[in-house]
Structure formats: structure tokens, C-alpha cells
Amino acid sequence: MKNIDILMAGVGGQGTILASNILTEVGLELKYNVKKSEVHGMAQRGGTVESHVRWGDEVHAPLIEQGYADYLIGFEMLETARWPSYIKKGAPVIINSYQIPPPSVNLGKAKYPSKEEIESILTAAGGKVIWVEGTKIAEELGNPAAAGVVLLGVVSNMLGGDEGIWQKVIQSLVPERFLELNRKAFQAGRALEVA
Predict the structure, then answer these.
(1) Whole-model pTM above 0.90?
(2) Which of 82, 122, 170, 177 is least surrounded by CB atoms within 10 angstroms?
(3) Could you give the number of structural domains in the chain?
């Protein structure tokens, strides 16, 4: 069993922490040694949120070293573009096609980069960019906050593990009133055909 290092980047309120908790528990269910680290930068107010989840036979530290992330999961486009130095060559970069402009953009002091610019930054670092309409899919299911679980559905096909394990973990971590929505969000992501 080789180590699998998964880096997630988003904005407070997007479900990044829930997604990292689900990944952590799935890793344990799959009998990996698991470590997790989170940084909440004013997460409740739309600040940066990053989470490192590491699966392996023996994982000694919770933080992923630069150049070693096997997967980068981006909940917001610009936040994803902040992490190119962490991507391992050829690593999938799963990006939610969704923008939350930072204050500097709203104030007219900076320009939000285009999708092409963001993709260029990440492919130059060796990443294999996969765009996912996670927020749009989650909105269609009833709540845009489930976008992170759509992204997990996509990455679950790459990470492996029986769908039943993923669904069991989702059931154990999601409040009852949001459970059906998150089950559907996961299945919608899992059903996407990504190149």
C-alpha cells in the first residue's frame, strides 16, 4: 500500500472540512493509517480553508510536503490556483468551476484570473486538470453547499473503495436532514465521466 496524499483547498462555508472528515473516515475504513491537518483562515467568514489528508501503511506527519500531493481537490477556482507547488507530476487536480471573488477583486484592486489562466498555472506544475460543475450540480439537487460531496464522488472513483463504504461514512457524518441531499450529491459526482 503506497501513501496517498490528498490536499483540499476552498473557502469557509463550502464544506471543505466535512469533505476532509469523510476522506479521513473512508481511509480508516479501508484500513489505512490516516493523518489529517486543517487550517481555517477565518473560515466562518469566507476565508481560506485548506486540509491535508494522508493515507498509507505508516503515515508519520499530517502535512503533505511540496511536490507530493497525489490529488488536489479545489472547492473554489482561485483557492485551487494557490497550490501548484504541492502537486506531484501527473496528479489529478479536481476543480469546482465556481468563483468566490476575494475582497481585492470586489474592490477593483485585482482581477479574478480566467479559467484558462488557472488551468495554465496548474498544468505548468504538472497537474492534470479536471473541471467539475460541483456547485451547479449541488444547486440542482437543492443546496449548493453539497458541492464538496459532488467532488468527493468524482475522486472516489480514483481512490477506490466500495461505494457502500463511502455512503456509510457519509451517513455517519452528515446530519439526518441533509443526508439524502449528500447521498445524491455523492452519486452525481461518482456518475460523472471525467477524462
Answers:
(1) yes
(2) 177
(3) 1
